[in-house]
């Protein structure tokens, strides 16, 4: 790892360089404002700097969009009337108190209804999160099986688990275990499929080489638009 600084107007933008087995220089702007450059191990500092300067405006614009999104992300209170996302749609939260009823979460027309014996923010949050996780396990398993069945080089659906991550939607371990962020279940179906395909392709190419991107494009033409949509929703989806 090495570090650098991009000067854009009066703005100083720090970035980190990670040397990998890539064949191209790839620049990433994350939802928390970090900028990372993935470069081939043979890349010279001047080549990396030139690549960053070439995309300076793109980096600056993405950082400005992040600032704008964060401004509109409000802390969750888990009270009736608050909106929550599920599969890309907004649902109104309704908290119902029934002292004799078992705690329950139901998805109804246009709303998510949480029944609790007493009104308690932490209890509502815990129930809602458990509901999201259960939905994620079921949906991700089905989408993984569907995607894996289309990849002739995969003999079976790979092992996977839910893993809450602050900055990533998914990851693939060197041993082939896929990790999927349960917050992803709040995103549109196309975004979920993109993340699953992204990680499945890493089972064949554990890098971001041209071969990897060709494979990803084969299974999801136009994935760049879907990724951009998901990146644009990151702050909202990961809140709470």
Explain what the structure shows.
This protein has helices spanning 45-54, 56-71, 121-149, 189-202, 210-219, 223-238, and strands at residues 2-8, 11-20, 26-29, 35-40, 83-86, 89-97, 104-108, 111-116, 160-162, 170-172, 178-180. The mean pLDDT is 89. Helix 4 runs antiparallel to helix 5 (210-219) and helix 4 crosses helix 6 (223-238). The chain is α/β, with parallel strands linked by helices and 240 residues long. The chain folds into 2 domains: 2-71, no CATH class; 83-238, Zincin-like (2-Layer Sandwich), CATH 3.30.2010.10. The strands form 3 sheets. It has a 4-stranded mixed β-sheet with strand order 1-2-4-3, covered by helices on one side. Strands 5-6-8-7 form a 4-stranded mixed β-sheet, with helices on one face.
What's the alpha carbon Rg, rounded to whole Å? 20 Å
Multimerization state: single chain
Tally of alpha and pi helices = 6
Anisotropy-based shape: globular
